[in-house]
Specification:
- This protein is α+β, with helices and mostly antiparallel strands.
- It has one domain.
- Helix content is 34%, strand content 33%.
- The protein contains 2 helices and 5 strands.
- Strands 1, 2, 3, 4 and 5 form a 5-stranded antiparallel β-sheet that branches.
- Strand 4 and strand 5 form a beta hairpin.
- The protein is elongated, with a radius of gyration of 19 Å.
């Protein structure tokens, strides 16, 4: 009985230490569409992923030379563009 309680407690501690789930990598087709969508916004590069039904691009460099985090919907329409801190 004590071993079960100990194992359960260890499991719960392990869960609390687990990293948050993140999105998935974009496919080559998605990447091409994101590159085009970024170009419309005057931006390029960045780290791309698909998460919670949205495409996220972190640290894209835009025409003003600054880095931004951009979010696009499933149809590659811009939802938000925020200056990367």
């Amino acid at each position: 009985m004590h071993i079960r309680m100990l194992l359960a407690a260890a499991f719960l501690v392990g869960l609390s230490q687990a990293p948050a789930w993140s999105g998935r990598a974009v496919t080559e087709e998605e990447r091409a569409k994101l590159v085009a969508a970024l170009a419309v916004e005057g931006c390029s590069g960045g780290e791309m992923e698909f998460d919670n039904g949205k495409y996220e691009v972190e640290e894209a460099v835009c025409r003003d030379g600054r880095e931004y985090d951009l979010v696009f919907d499933a149809n590659f329409k811009l939802i938000s563009k925020k200056l990367d801190d």
